[in-house]
Amino acid sequence: MSVQHDPVQRADFDQVMVPNYAPAGFIPVRGAGSRVWDQSGRELIDFTGGIAVNALGHCHPALVAALTEQANTLWHISNVFTNEPALRLAHKLVDATFAERAFFCNSGAEANEAAFKLARRVAFDRFGEDKYEIIAATNSFHGRTLFTVSVGGQPKYSDGFGPKIQGINHVPYNDIEALKAAVSARTCAVVLEPIQGEGGVLPADLAYLQAARELCDQHDALLIFDEVQTGMGRSGSLFAYQHYGVIPDILSSAKSLGGGFPIGAMLTTEALAKHLVVGTHGTTYGGNPLACAVAEAVIDVVNTPAVLDGVKAKRQRFKVALEQFGEQYGVFSQVRGLGLLIGAVLSDAWKGKAKAILDAAAAEGVMVLQAGPDVVRFAPSLVVEEVDIDEGLARFERALAKLTQA
Ligand SMILES: *Cc1c(COP(=O)(O)O)cnc(C)c1O
């Protein structure tokens, strides 16, 4: 049975949508693996992964099966009841990580909101009302709610919306001395992305994360890792903290967790979780059976040596090619990141031109991302096929060749 829809085009966006996005000129209508087709039938290779969301590409059979089965079983039941997919997913996350408890929500921002509220509540319960300061990194990104833009260190996202959440301190990323100077008895939490994603695919130094862990322990503060972008296999480990060997107290996950179905999770220990007693926090959709069934299928596929080792091998394929393009065309000065979160840093001559490269790439049939104006970002499916990597990189090279000739 097929449903008849009225035809719509890109121009409709400007007629009916709030203009807070500037989507590309074409509309993708179908995806399979790492390929996408637009309304005109043009095929593109997808190196964006829905911004590090489609961990298993488009319409992965295991996810389609999990979603379809759950869609025919139970959609929503609210948190007045619990449900089997949520409990199974929580078990899997707890078994695979430092965490002992999970809280489910619907996005990365909500996972961080829960993390920040938990950190403040723990400090309030244990040490009283003066311990509420959150230390975050300049240029970090934690989501778009008022609390999370206040914590994120980017004024362009937080200015102009009235008073911000108070008690947040920003320090330069990867600067141990600055962090040391900022942490005090008033600090309830330090929050860091193990790799700054939106901030330019900038990985933390191991010594920095280790120092953050020590400083938190010395000052009775909690260490929160925002792994919304780095988690669920993206780094080549299930979570990036496992790559670094530095264990947080609270971890937020979303994006790849659902492989394209909206879900977020806040993971923590039993001792901390117990501070969120009945009634202190919640969300209607959190732990929704559809979302949890899909996320369970994602973790089943991703948390295997085949996929995680594959991420490291595929990274090499990207890195070698991108470094070569960087030299040949003079566009990149460095290729950084971890696993399949890759940032090609623009050379001085190309600074500020990430968007132009994105557009040129799309014109050649390959979708890539930017991470700020100076970094071209790749966040493909973790199971992207080698033929798709090679074909996508060939298209990307054609875009660079045209741009640099012009
Ligand atoms: C995308 C992102 C978020 C926000 O997630 P949403 O699902 O958009 O709310 C938070 N933190 C990091 C590190 C992200 O990359």
TrEMBL record:
Catalytic reaction equation(s): N(2)-acetyl-L-ornithine + 2-oxoglutarate = N-acetyl-L-glutamate 5-semialdehyde + L-glutamate
| Superkingdom, taxonomy of origin | Bacteria
Specify whether DNA-binding is a keyword of the entry. Answer: no
> Which Pfam family name is an example for this entry?
Aminotran_3
Q: Which residues bind N(2)-acetyl-L-ornithine?
A: R144, T283
Give one GO molecular function term: pyridoxal phosphate binding
The cofactors it requires, by name, are: pyridoxal 5'-phosphate
| EC class (word) | transferase
Compartments annotated for it: namely: Cytoplasm
Sites bearing N6-(pyridoxal phosphate)lysine, chain numbering: K255
Q: Which GO terms describe its cellular component?
A: cytoplasm
Pathway linked to the protein: Amino-acid biosynthesis; L-arginine biosynthesis; N(2)-acetyl-L-ornithine from L-glutamate: step 4/4
Enzyme Commission number: 2.6.1.11
Binding-site residues, pyridoxal 5'-phosphate: G108, A109, F141, D226, E227, V228, Q229, T284
Q: Which Gene3D superfamilies match?
A: Aspartate Aminotransferase, domain 1 (3.90.1150.10), Type I PLP-dependent aspartate aminotransferase-like (Major domain) (3.40.640.10)
Cofactor remark: Binds 1 pyridoxal phosphate per subunit.
* Example GO biological process: L-arginine biosynthetic process
Read off the InterPro entries from this record.
Answer: Ac/SucOrn_transaminase_bac, AcOrn/SuccOrn_fam, Aminotrans_3, Aminotrans_3_PPA_site, Class-III_PLP-dep_AT, PyrdxlP-dep_Trfase, PyrdxlP-dep_Trfase_major, PyrdxlP-dep_Trfase_small
Q: Which UniProt keywords apply?
A: Amino-acid biosynthesis, Aminotransferase, Arginine biosynthesis, Cytoplasm, Pyridoxal phosphate, Transferase
Q: What's the family? A: Belongs to the class-III pyridoxal-phosphate-dependent aminotransferase family. ArgD subfamily.
Q: Which HAMAP family match?
A: ArgD_aminotrans_3
Additional detail? May also have succinyldiaminopimelate aminotransferase activity, thus carrying out the corresponding step in lysine biosynthesis.
Subunit and interaction comment: Homodimer.
> What is the protein's name according to its record?
Acetylornithine aminotransferase
